[in-house]
Amino acid sequence: MTLLELTGAYATLANKGRRVPPVAITKILDHEGNLIYEYKQSAGDQVVRPEHAYLISSILSDNDARRGAFGANSILNVPFQAAVKTGTTNDYRDNWTIGYTPDLAVGVWVGNPDFTPMQNTSGLTGAAPIWSNFIQSAIQDIASGNPTPFTRPGGVVEMVVCDSSGTLPSEWCPTVRSELFAADQPPLPKEQDLWQRVVVDTWTGLLASPACREFTDETMVLNVSDTWARRWIRRDEAGRAWAEQMGFDRQITFAPDRECRADDPRPVLSITLPREFDLISSNPLEIIGLTDATDWYDSVRLEYGMGDDPVEWNFLDEWNRAVREPGTLYSWEVQDIPPGTVTLRLYMTSTEDTYAELKLRLMLQIPTPTIPPTETPTPTMIPTLTPFPTLTPFPTPTETLVPAPTTDWFPKATPSPYP
């Protein structure tokens, strides 16, 4: 493509979508001043709708729109409204800057004539300064310094859209802005916003249907269908950060494009024993069931939580083998689990970042183990001392008191008959 051809394409946008072929010779006079030839401009062909030409001009003349790439005060920001686009080819072999007002279209190419690459020279640093200086100078001559502004056609309307998606805002859209549209091409409805609440089959990620209704969840999905955009959101840290900023968890489900069918991959997940709301009164508890899938099988995690709707799950076991016949999945020691409602969960993951989940509520009432009584040791009998018998004292003889002589205490001696 030549510089003249490319500038002519942009001139069509400047001319509200009407293409008038570029010409180089407008008049030929002979040596006496007689008119030999004069170009008569045709009406041209309307090859772009006026509404579309205006919308493109609005985008290319929006300095805020190019702020992220070029900054607020780049060389492209001239003193009047002008639509402009830069370009740089591989290896810096070509620099382009094409821009226009309703009065004038200017194209600039910078490069080496022998097609050798330039040294790190971009459209912004190579061609744009030439374009900026020329168009500012030329406008003084063509429009006396007052360039014609872009005028909005009657078929262009202003509407409020969701800032992140460009659709009509849904109830989950965080911020909105005004945007221009062709009246017969309004923004997508709010049902096509980035945020959609749908019932999905969790194993395939498709819309739930009568053929796929065992493992479903009503969830907020991200309405992004482009393959590269999905890969960026799932695998690139910047993409994951953007999704979190939009209010989505790390486990992102994208909006399904169809309903699930019976021939789609299906999980095979069941617990045959115990059954829902069984009263568990013995230990250990044998959990019997199946864990398999027709495709995408990856691994299974067995967990439990307290209550009907646990907010925390406690790990029991994990395996990546398929259990195709009913068998013991786990022997659970429940002796130390508090009595009450307990919810079991089998969580099976797929190779496609999807899952199937089975919950089972049980009433746990393990009898408190009987503590054997402690044997009371036989006390050592301390013998009671038998008191000695009370001895009966011999009677004290009653003394016969001899009356004392009245005369003397001691009796007088009787005289002896012997001399």
Describe the secondary structure blueprint for this structure.
Blueprint: H1 3-14, E1 18-19, E2 27-29, E3 35-38, E4 45-46, H2 50-60, H3 67-70, E5 83-88, E6 95-100, E7 105-110, H4 123-142, E8 156-162, E9 176-182, E10 195-201, E11 216-222, H5 227-235, H6 237-245, E12 267-273, E13 279-280, E14 285-293, E15 297-306, E16 314-319, E17 323-332, E18 340-350, E19 355-364
Parallel strand pairs: 13-19
Antiparallel strand pairs: 1-4, 2-3, 5-6, 6-7, 8-9, 10-11, 12-14, 14-17, 15-16, 15-18, 18-19
Q: Describe the global form.
A: elongated
Number of helices: 6
Give the strand content.
25-35%
Report the uncertain regions: 396-419
DSSP, total strands: 19
Which fold name fills CATH's third level, the topology of the largest domain?
Beta-lactamase
Percent of residues in helices comes to 10-25%
Helix-strand pattern: HEEEEHHEEEHEEEEHHEEEEEEEE
Gap between N and C termini, in Å? Answer: 199 Å
| Annotated CATH architecture of the largest domain | 3-Layer(aba) Sandwich
Name the CATH class of the largest domain.
Alpha Beta
Write down the overall mean pLDDT.
88
What radius of gyration results from the CA coordinates?
Answer: 52 Å
Oligomer class:
single chain
CATH superfamily caption of the largest domain:
DD-peptidase/beta-lactamase superfamily
